[in-house]
Design a protein that fits this description.
Number of helices: 8
Protein name: Odorant receptor
Organism: Nezara viridula (Southern green stink bug)
Radius of gyration: 24 Å
Order of helices and strands: HHHHHHHH
Number of domains: 2
Largest sheet: none
Distance between the termini: 27 Å
Shape: elongated
Keywords: Membrane, Transmembrane, Transmembrane helix
Number of strands: 0
Oligomer: single chain
Structural class: mainly alpha
């Protein structure tokens, strides 16, 4: 099985209702994914309006800290809405990028540090959301815990559960949109920089003696010559130009 460093993010995109072109092309699952995306594209703006309502209409019932969290909720939910729409409208470009950059790992020091930062960033995001859910059950307050500060009608079970699942469910989607999509573009940047690093190393051997070029081409951070191609300066330059054109696309 070939390597795919974007495998996790492909599943995240599907969780957001976005199926990249060419995936599930002959499957009926594309229909429920599309319906789910339409629902999310509506629920996130609704959550934004709820935050705005809490700031503009109910600010006198809450503390300054609560209003600040509500304002932060407006910003983060609006950001998640735009990210979701941008992902969907640019899904063809994202498909080309991830397919082009998926089959290698950036094994330099900077590349490895970037991978660790990505995992740590995602872990913090999920931990924050899980802790918020646990706090709600442990403290059992009449109001949902930050950053929602929405009245929790405990006397009506149906309304209470509906309110809880809508706000907390949409908050999970918001967290995934903001954090995991950020790491998607960070990973794309990391992979692209590694390809440019390999291109630079290969370009630098032009003009060296043939024996030294052959020795350096054995290194893993070099472009691979096609079978039968001699390591002449013209062939290496042609290979570098082709790689540069692919990166520009």
């Amino acid at each position: 099985m070939s390597m795919d460093v974007f495998k996790k993010h492909r599943y995240v995109l599907r969780f957001l209702g976005i199926v990249l072109p060419g995936e599930l092309s002959n499957s009926w699952l594309r229909i429920p994914f599309h319906i789910w995306f339409r629902y999310l594209s509506i629920s996130l703006p609704v959550l934004t309006l709820c935050f705005l309502f809490g700031i503009t209409q109910l600010h006198d019932q809450y503390s300054v800290t609560a209003c600040m969290y509500s304002f932060a909720g407006v910003v983060s939910t609006t950001s998640a809405s735009f990210k979701l729409i941008l992902l969907y409208t640019n899904r063809y470009d994202i498909k080309e990028l991830v397919d082009f950059l998926k089959d290698f790992r950036a094994d330099t020091t900077v590349g490895r540090i970037t991978y660790v930062l990505i995992y740590f960033y995602e872990f913090l995001a999920l931990s924050f959301r899980v802790i918020a859910l646990i706090e709600i059950f442990m403290k059992g307050k009449l109001k949902l815990l930050m950053p929602f500060w929405t009245p929790f009608p405990r006397d009506n079970v149906v309304v209470a559960l509906s309110t809880y699942f809508f706000f907390q469910g949409t908050a999970i989607i918001k967290t995934i949109c903001n954090f995991f999509i950020d790491t998607l573009f960070l990973l794309i940047s990391n992979q692209t920089c590694h390809r440019m690093f390999i291109l630079r190393n290969t370009f630098r051997i032009i003009g060296l003696p043939e024996e030294e070029k052959l020795e350096r081409l054995k290194h893993k951070h070099m472009l691979k010559l096609p079978p039968g191609m001699k390591p002449t300066d013209s062939n290496i330059l042609k290979l570098c130009v082709e790689e540069h054109i692919l990166l520009l696309k």
